[in-house]
Write a structure and sequence with these properties.
The complex is a heterodimer of chains A (121) and B (107). Chain A is mostly beta strands and 121 residues long. Chain A is built from no helices and 11 strands. In chain A, the strands form 2 sheets. In chain A, strands 2, 4, 5, 6, 9, 10 and 11 form a 7-stranded mixed sheet that branches. Chain A has a 4-stranded antiparallel sheet with strand order 1-3-8-7, with no helix packed on it. Chain A is globular. The termini of chain A are far apart. The N and C termini of chain B lie far apart (36 Å). In chain B, strands 2, 4, 5, 6, 9, 10 and 11 form a 7-stranded mixed sheet that branches. The chains are: A mainly beta (121), B mainly beta (107). At the A-B interface, β5 and β10 of A face β4, β5 and β10 of B.
Chain lengths: 121, 107
């Protein structure tokens, strides 16, 4: 069974940093691209970043480009999101998601339960 | 960036009704359009991928259609468990973009 478990969220002051993790199990992690998607409280979904299986290709939303870094450790079956210079508008539930197919990073077929990041002083 | 205009934003229908939700892309996205269902307090669930392919385990009352810029999610006979918010997502080009959502309630 595919499982994705996010961790690392919490309350952080504006301008500070936070690193999220997503531990994957139930599939060969190194074969799949991965994604981060976020959802502000009571709002819609926003794609944040994607990374290919070997980290060769990485893409970011303009709203986080230059501040967030997606990475992965295939030996540890773990996806990361390093977030710096956090803003109040980054407050959201952050999901990691695995695509349905090996060859692309979408569609997002498997989702974790999310980890909540709150940016506030 | 490709904008996804989803309508309606709110929908109230009766059990057994046929329900349609629409997404319009600001430019051609071929068939790279997915539909998600999100129930309160849960992660989104993939219903339809590549415009009209039913995800494994999803009831056949859900279907998708369209290509290019106009897409539709149809629930052929609304069930009480279908109460949720529905989102479309385009993955034709970066950045991937979601529709704003349709909140579906039972009348």
């Amino acid at each position: 069974e595919v499982q994705l478990v996010e961790s690392g969220g919490g309350l952080v002051q504006p301008g500070r940093s936070l690193k999220l993790s997503c531990l994957a199990s139930g599939f060969t992690f190194s074969n799949y691209g991965m994604n981060w998607i976020r959802q502000a409280p009571g709002k819609g979904l926003e794609w944040v970043a994607s990374i290919s299986s070997s980290s060769s290709y990485i893409y970011y939303a303009d709203t986080v480009k230059g501040r967030f870094t997606i990475s992965r450790d295939n030996a540890k079956n773990t996806l990361y999101l390093q977030m710096t210079s956090l803003r109040s508008e980054d407050t959201a539930l952050y999901y990691c998601a695995r695509p349905k197919f090996l060859t692309t990073v979408a569609p997002f077929a498997y989702w974790g339960q999310g980890t909540l990041v709150t940016v506030s002083s | 960036d490709i904008q996804m205009t989803q309508s309606p934003s709110f929908l109230s229908a009766s059990v057994g009704d046929r329900v349609t939700i629409n997404c319009k892309a600001s430019q051609n996205i071929n068939r790279y359009l997915n539909w998600y269902q999100q129930k309160l307090g849960e992660a989104p669930k993939l219903l339809i991928y590549n415009a009209n392919s039913l995800q494994t385990g999803i009831p056949s009352r859900f279907s998708g259609s369209g290509s290019g810029t106009d897409f539709t999610l149809t629930i052929s006979s609304l069930q009480p468990e279908d109460v949720a918010t529905y989102f479309c997502l385009q993955h034709n080009s970066w950045p991937f973009t979601f529709g704003s959502g349709t909140k579906l309630e039972i009348k």
